[in-house]
Amino acid sequence: MQLEEKKKKEIEFLEKVFRAGSSTLSNISPIADKQKKAVERISELGFPNRKIEDWKYYDFSPILDNFLSFDTCKITQIEKESLKDFLFPECEKNLLVTVNGHFSEKLSNFSFSKEDISILNFNDPEQLKSYQGLDDLVEKYFAEGIENESNFFKACNTALLSNAFLLKVKEGVQLKETLQILHISNEHCFNQTRSLIHLGANSKINIIVTYVGLAEIPFVNNAVIETVLEEGSELVLDKIQDDTQKGILLYDLKAKLLKNSRFEYSSLNLKANSSRDKISVDIDEEGAHADINGLYILNGERKAHNVITVNHNVGNSTSSQLFKGILSDKARAEFNGAINVARDANGTDAEQMNRHLVLSDEAHVDSRPQLNILADDVKCAHGSTIGDLEEDEIFYLLSRGIKKDDALAMLTLSFCDEVIQKVKIESARQHIKNMALENLDTQMHKANIVHNLR
Amino acid sequence: MSEQIIDIKELKADIVDGDQILKGLNLKINAGEIHAIMGPNGSGKSTLSKILSGHPAYEITDGAIDFQGKDLVEMEADERANSGLFMAFQYPLEIAGVNNLEFLRMAYNSKQKYLGLEEADPLDFDDLIEEKLSLLNMKSDFLDRNLNEGFSGGEKKKNEILQMLVLNPKLVVLDEIDSGLDVDALRAVAAGINAYKSEGNAVLMITHYQRLLDYVKPDFVHILSGGKIVKSGDSSLALEVEKEGYDLLAA
Amino acid sequence: MQNLPQTEEKTSTDMFASLSSQEYKYGFSTDIETDSFPKGLSEEVIRKISAIKEEPEFMLEFRLKSYEAFKNMVDPDWAKLNIPAIDYQDIIYYSAPKAKPTKESLDEVDPEILKTYEKLGIPIEEQKRLEGIAVDAIFDSVSVANTHKKALAEIGIIFCSISEAIKEHPELVKKYIGSVVPHTDNFFSALNGAVFSDGTFVYIPPNTKCPLELSTNFRINTKGSGQFERTLIVCDDESYVSYLEGCTAPAFDENQLHAAVVELVAKEKSEIKYSTVQNWYAGDENGVGGIYNFVTKRAKCEGRDSKVSWTQVETGSAITWKYPSCILQGDNSIGEFYSVALTNNMQQADTGTKMIHIGKNTKSTIISKGISAGKSSNSYRGLVKVTPNAKGARNYTQCDSMLIGSTNAANTFPYIEVDGKSAKVEHEASTSKISEEQLFYLQQRGINVEDAIGLIISGFCKDVFKELPGEFAAEANQLMSLQLENSVG
Question: Is C237 within 8 Å of C267 (Cβ atoms)?
Fold first, then answer.
C-alpha cells in the first residue's frame, strides 16, 4: 500500500530526528532548554501533511523518498576559488560561511569592529559563555514561541542544530558595509543552518544571505533566520537561493519589529528542485514598517512555495508585500500570503501584491492572498494576477522593430525588475539577472538582452 | 437696517483633546453682505469654517453663535445645513458608488422636508438642476458620475458651487474655494457665487490670497491671526495684505 | 402521525417591530395547523416522507443513498465559523400545513397563510395581480401556492413544486436531480437529499424566453423544524429565465436548520439569472436563536455559450455557510457571482463562490461586498480553478469589505488554482470603513446620520444591487438600512 509506505517513511523520518536530536543537545542550558521544548513540539506536531492549510499544496515525497542522512552532515574541504560565482565583491571583507551546517573559519572573513557587532558561534561554548547577556537573548528571542511552533521543520532545526550564528548589532551603530552569510550544501544530508540577528536601538545593517548547492545530489537545507529589530533600527536583508537542481530548501524567517523600526526584505529563489519559504513578520510596536518582496523564476519541474504572514499586532504601522513568479515548462508555484490585523490595530496600512507570469501550458499556479481584519480604521488591500505576457505589449515592441525573442525577453525581465531593484548590492543584482536569464526560455537571445538590460 | 444672518461673539474653540485654535473671535454678518477672512497659515481660518458647520473634531469652549435667531452651537451638522448654512469644502470628499444627481436630490429634499415644504420628484428636480448647470457651464453627464469620485480639483469645486446653488442657503462659507483652480474654473466658480448672491443672503469667504477677491468683491475684509480678528476694513485691506504681507498687518 | 402542540401566536404589535428598532421585522409565526413528524432522523422517517409524497421508486432510492452517504460524513469544520454542535436527531424533518395544499386557486389557500405573506410585504394576492412575477411559496416544507402556472404552461414552461414535478414529470426530475450536486457532495447536501420535503422545479423548453420573473418565497414557521427544500431549474437550449428567491422565518429563541440544495442546469446558449434576498431570522443581539443557513447552490453551464448569474443579498441567518458556484463546462460559457453579505450583532457568515473553468474561453466574474457590524464575523471564501483544458479562461474577482465599529471581523480567503499560460486571472480585495469625514460631508448637506450611512452603504453595494430586478433592489436597500440601524455611533 502506498499510504502505508508513506506512513513508514514519515515514522522513519521522525525516528531519525529523535535519534539525532539526542546527540545535538547544546551544553549551554538556555539553548538546551529550547531544544528540549522543540523535541516535545516535534512529537506533538508529527510529520506534516497536506490537510494542514499551510501545506495544502506541498509535495513531501522528495524529502521522504531520498533517505537523507542525518548524521553525515560534515564539513568538507572547499576551495575558495570554487565559490567565486557566489561571492559578492562588496562583501569580500565580511563573509561568514557554513558548509553542510558547520562554520568554516577558513572560508570566512571578518573586518567589522567587535565594538560595533558581536558575532557568536553556537558551537563555540567558550566564546558563548563569556558573552554577557547571552541567557537573556536566547531566552527571549532564540526559538521564540517554540512551544506553539506551527512549522514542524523549524522545530527540527531547533532540535538538530549544531551551529547557529548570533549577530548582535550594538545600539546606535550604523554599518555601511554589507555582511554576506553563505550556506553551502554538498552532501546527501538533512542539514540545519540558522542565524539570530539582533539589532540594537537605532542601529542599521545590510545582510545578504545565500544558500548554495555545490553538488548535483539531493539534499535538504533546513534554514532558519530569526531577527529582532529594536526601536528605530533598520535591517536590509536579501536572501538568494542558489541551490543545485536536486536541492531542497526549507526556509523559515521570523522577524519581530519594535517601535519605528524598518525591515526591508527580498527573497530570490533562482535554482533548487523545490523551495519553501515560510515568512512571518510580527509588527509589535507602532511606527514600524515591513517591506517584503520575492521573486521566483521556475523552469523544468521546479517548485516554489511562499507562505507569508504579516501580523499587524498594533496599529499605526505599515507593510507592503510584492511577490512575483515566472513559470515555464512544468513548474509549479504556490503563493499563500496573509495580512492579519489585530483587534484595535487602527491606523494599519497594509498591502500585498502577487503576480505570476505563466509562459507554458503545463505550468501551474496556486495563489491564496488572504486578509483577516479585526480593526475598522485600517487600509488593507491585496491583488493577485495570473497570466501570460500581454499581446499588446509584445506587439508594441515588434512595431518598433524589435525582434520577437528580444521583445519576449525584455518584457519578461522587466516583469522581474521591480523586485530585482530592491536588492541593495549591485553585483548581487547582476548575478540575479544572469540567473534569471539562464532560467528563462533558452530561445531568447540572452547575450543581446543581457547587454541591453545591464 | 438689513436682516442679521449670523452673530459670532467671543468664540473660543479647541480641537477635541487638543490645542485651542480660536481665542475670542467676533464677527457679525448681515444679509446682502460679502465678507472675506484672510490670514496666514495656522491662523485658524479653516477651523472657523469647520466650527460653523459643526465638525465633530472641534469643540466650542466659550462664546456664542446666533444664526438667524437660533443657537447654532446646539445644532447637529445636518440641522445647521437645513437651516441654511452651507459650507464649500476645501477638499470635497469622494464617496464611491453614490450617484451625484441622486445625492443632490436627497440633500435638496432633506431641506424641503425640514422646512415643511413639498419634496421634488425626479422630473421637477431635473429641470431645477439643468438651469444651475448651464449657469456654471457644466455638462449634464457630470450628474451621472459618482459623488466627486475621480473629479479633477476644478470639477470638485464646481460641484460644491452647484450644490450651493441647488440648496440656496442663507449663509455660504467658502473654505479656500480658489485653491487648486485654474483661471477658467475660478471664473466659473465666481460666476456661480455672484449669481447666487442677493439682498437676502450672505457670503463668508475664507482665503489666503487676493486672487478670488478680484472676481468676487467683498464688502468687508477681516484679518485673522492667532485665533482672533486683528483688523477689519473694506476691500482695500486685501490689496494691502497682498502688498505688505500678513506680518506687518498683524503686528 | 402525531400533531405537535401549536406554536404560540406572536403577532402582537410589539413583536411586529417598527422600522425604528433593530428587531426582526418578520419575527411572527402564523397560527395554522400543521402535520409534523416527531423529531429525529432514520431510514423509517425517510421512507415515510417518500410515502406521504407518493413518490416513485427512483426518488426513494435517491433519498436512501443520500442518507447512506450522510451517515458516513461529518460536519465540515474548515469554514471560519463557530458552529455549536447540532443534534440532528432533535429536528423535525417534516412539517406541513394541515389544510390541504392547493395549487389551482389562491382562494383555497388557508387565509392564515395568506395573512403571513401580507405581513412579509409580499402578498400573493397582490403578486397575482402584478404582471411580471409568478410566485411559488414554500411554507415550512410544502409548496402552498403557485400563481401564473397555467399561463406559463401554455408556452411549455413548467413551474411547480418539486413534489408535483416528481409525480407529473418524473423523467425530467430523474434525469437532472443530483446531476449538479451529487448525493455524496457534502454533509448538508446529503442530508437534504435524504429528507427534502419540497422546493421548486422549473423547466424552460428550448427557444423560450420566460416572460415572467419566477419567484419563490421560503418561510420556516414551525418551531424546532428544519427546512430542507430542493430547487431544480433546467433551462434548455437558447432559453432564458430569471428566478428570485426570498427567505424569512419567525423569531424563535432556538436555532433552526435550513439546509437547501439548488441545482441549475444551463443548456446551449441559455441563460439563468438566480437572485436571492435572504433575510432569515438572525437571532437577537446576544446571538440567541436564528437560522443556520447551510446551503449548497451550484450551477452547471453544460452547453456552449451558456450563462449563469448568481446574485445574492444575505442579511439574515445566525450562521450562513453558502457558496453558489458555477461549473463552466460548455465552451464560452459564463459564470457570474454578485454578492452582498451583511452581518451584525453575533451573526457569522462564510460565503463566496466557486468558479470551475473546464470549457475553452470560459469567463467568470466575482463581485463580493461584505459589511460587518456589531460583534459579527464576515468571511469571503472563493475558489477560482482553471483546469488544463480551459484554454483562454478569464476571471475577474473583486472582494471589498467594510467594517463598522471595532468589534467585528472581516476576512478574505480566495483560492486561485490555475493551469497553463492561456488563462488570465485577476483578483483584487480591499477594506474600508465609513469615515467620519464622509459622514460629516453628507451631514453638512442636510442629510441625517442614518440616511448618510444608508447612502454610503448602498454606494458600496451598488455593483451588486444593480444586478437585482427592480423592486428587489429597493427591498435590498431597505433591508440593509434596517439591519444596520444604531450600528454606527
Answer: yes
